[in-house]
Amino acid sequence: MELEPPTQDELKTLKREWDEGRLDGISTHLLEFVERHRKEILAIAHDSYAPEELLGAVRHWVRQKGFIHLPLDMADQIREISNEIWYHGERGDFNRAKIQEEWTVKHAVTWRKWRVKQILYVIDRRAGDVAAALLASR
Questions:
Q1: CA 138, CA 100: separation in Å to the nearest integer?
Q2: Is 63 exposed, middle or buried (0-12, 13-18, 19+ CB in 10 A)?
Q3: How open is the CA angle 96-70-134, to the nearest 5 degrees?
Q4: Percent of the chain's residues with pLDDT above 70
Q5: Is the dihedral of CA 79, 80, 85, 90 positive or negative?
Q6: Would you state the pLDDT for residue 47?
Q7: 77 class by beta-carbon count within 10 Å (0-12 exposed, 13-18 middle, 19+ buried)
Q8: The model scores a pTM over 0.90
Q9: C-alpha triplet 108, 115, 88: angle, nearest 5°
Q10: Residue 130 CA, distance from chain mean position
C-alpha cells in the first residue's frame, strides 16, 4: 500500500491515541501477526539479525497486507459506520443501506490508510518487542 509518511499533526494524533489506549487492540494483535508471518518477514529481511532490517521487513509486510487482524478492523469499521448512521438519524435520515454505502465510498480507502499508519506507529512504539519476537525464533 502506498502511504505518505505521517504529518506532524498525524503524529500528534497517533501519540494521543497511543496515550489514551486507543491503539491497544492493534498492539495486542501485532506480535500474533509477526508470529503468523515470521517466514515471510524473515525472507523480506534476507534473514538478517539486525533489528532495523527486521523492523523494516515488518513495516513492508504490513504495507503489503494492509492489515494485521481483520476481525478487529471489521469491528472498528462497523463502529464508524454505526456512528455515521447515528449522526444521520439525528438529522432525520434513516436510510441505513444508503448511509452504509456512502460511508464505504467516501471513507473506506482513507480509513484503511489511517489504520496502516496506526499499525506502523505501534510497530515503532513496540520495536523492541517486535525485533525480539523475530529473533527468538532463530
A1: 46
A2: middle
A3: 160
A4: 99
A5: positive
A6: 86
A7: middle
A8: yes
A9: 40
A10: 15
